[in-house]
C-alpha cells in the first residue's frame, strides 16, 4: 500500500467554550507564546502531522475569527455550543472526511506540543484509539488518560453515537477501555488545562 492510500488524519480542535469559570472571555483568545491559544494549538496540530485542522468555534465566534489568524484552517461554528462539549465534538467529527482518522485536542491545554501530536500519530494502531496519557508526581507509575487522542476512522460512528452533553467521547472510552492505547506523553506536558484564574500560570 502506497503512502497515498494510508488513512489521513484530520485534527479537530475544540475551541467553542465561553470560558465562564475563567471570566476572561473565550479561552481560545487567551495570550500564549506571543499569540492566541487557538492559533498556537491549531498550528501545533498541523506541524505535528495532521493533514488538515478543523477548528470548532462557538461562543463569540466572530470575535475569535477577527482577532486570531485562522486562515490556514477550516472553521466550523457550533451554534449549539452552550449544550456542552459533545455538540462541538460532533460538529468537528462531521466536518472530517469519513475515511480520515481524527485527532481531537482541547484549546485550553497549553502544554500541547508537536512531539505529542507526532507521537500519537506514529503510535496509532488500526481499529483503536490512541490517547495521550500523563503521570503525576504523586503516582509517577500511573498514567492518566487525557488529550489529545486519535480516534480511528472505523470507530468514529460508534463513538459519535455515544456523545451527548458535555461528555464528548468519554462514554465510549469507559464502555470499551480495551480499545484504548495509552501513549505516555509525560515528558512533554502534565496534560493539564486552564479553567480558573489560579491555573493561569500554566500559560507562562
Compile the SSE list and pairings.
Layout: E1 9-15, E2 31-32, E3 35-36, H1 37-47, E4 52-57, H2 61-67, E5 74-77, H3 85-95, E6 101-106, H4 114-123, E7 129-134, E8 144-151, H5 156-160, H6 170-175, E9 180-184
Parallel strand pairs: 1-4, 1-6, 4-5, 7-9
Antiparallel strand pairs: 2-3, 6-8, 7-8
Shape: globular
How confident is the prediction overall: mean pLDDT? 89
Helix content: 10-25%
The span between the termini is 44 Å
Gyration radius from CA atoms, angstroms: 16 Å
The CATH architecture term is: Alpha-Beta Complex
Order of strands across the main sheet: 5-4-1-6-8-7-9
- The helix tally amounts to 6
Largest sheet: 7 strands, mixed
What is the count of β-strands?
9
- Tally the structural domains: 1
The CATH C-level name is Alpha Beta
Q: Supply the CATH superfamily name.
A: Spore Coat Polysaccharide Biosynthesis Protein SpsA, Chain A
Uncertain runs are: none
Q: Examine the coordinates and then state which fold CATH places here, giving the name of the CATH topology.
A: Spore Coat Polysaccharide Biosynthesis Protein SpsA, Chain A
